[in-house]
Amino acid sequence: MKNIINTYLYYLIMLIIVGILLASLYFLYVWKNGQPENQDHYKNFTELKSDTKEHRDWKVNAKTTNNKDILVTAIHGGGIEPGTSELAKIISKKGDFNLYSFEGLLKTNNQKLHITSTRFDDPKLIKMTNESNEAVSIHGIQEQKKVVYIGGKDKAMAKSIKKELEKEGFNVEKSPQYVNGDSSNNVINKNDTGSGVQLEISTQYRKSFFDNSSLSRKTRENTSNYKQSIYDFAEAVTKGVKTQTHKK
Which residues cross the membrane (predicted)? Predict the structure, then answer.
């Protein structure tokens, strides 16, 4: 009788342990895919601008071309999400697309300048967005594996870009919910078509764009430190955009 009770208790304990492990994995999955956006220091661009100084703490690079259909943005460029503004500029040049990049210039803690996409309301960007048909937004995400998360409301354009990136050997996955770019308040979805594409590029991929895997300002500001992979990435995005645009 005692052996039966011990056996029963053993299996009961094992069952409880397995249940706890499965519950932990489930809640970890839910947390990662439903993780809320970071708490920003500034709630909008007006507040940031009143508390900082342009050209000292940050700068805006904006370019318009004869092609008003496509706008490429990097609203967390410079030291905020390093590598994003550099990539956006190359895409803009390759595709002859309009460009807007907001670049953090602080020596440290550029994350302070981060304003989430649903609240980034620089009037210059809003005007450029309103005058475009499509927006492609370049972001960086703190992810150690090599991955590009792709989201946004324009599913056809996202699919076209994904196809070209995968041809170049880049690992592309569907964005987790908290960075999926589907919100109507997201600046990329405020154009004529009400849709855009958001690319979230992992830390490891962005490091691989530069010599010595360095994301320092000194490295990023010298194009001789750029690796072929950043140009391959830009070419793939450009090709994906143009392929889908020509279908419309």
Answer: 9-31
- Where residue 129 sits, what CATH number does that domain have? 3.40.630.100
Structure confidence by residue, pLDDT tens digits, 144-185: 899 999 999 999 999 999 999 999 999 999 988 878 777 878
Task: Please measure the distance between the N-terminal and C-terminal CA atoms of the chain and give it in whole angstroms.
Answer: 77
Residue 119 has pLDDT above 50, yes or no: yes
29: left (phi over 0), alpha (psi -120 to 50) or beta: alpha
CA pair distance 100, 64, nearest whole angstrom: 9
Look at residue 37 and tell me if it is in a domain: no
Q: Which residues of 86-110 are buried (b: 16+ CB within 10 A; e: fewer)?
A: bbbbbbbebbebbbbbbbbbbeeeb
* pTM of full prediction above 0.85: no
pLDDT at position 35, please? Answer: 41
Q: What is the DSSP letter of 196?
A: E
Specify if 241 maps to a domain: yes
Kindly state whether residue 36 falls inside one of the protein's structural domains. Answer: no
Residue ranges making up the domain that contains 130: 45-247
Residue 15 belongs to some domain of the structure: no
| pLDDT tops 50 at residue 10 | yes
Number of domains in the chain: 1
Token pair of 30 as six digits: 């839910």
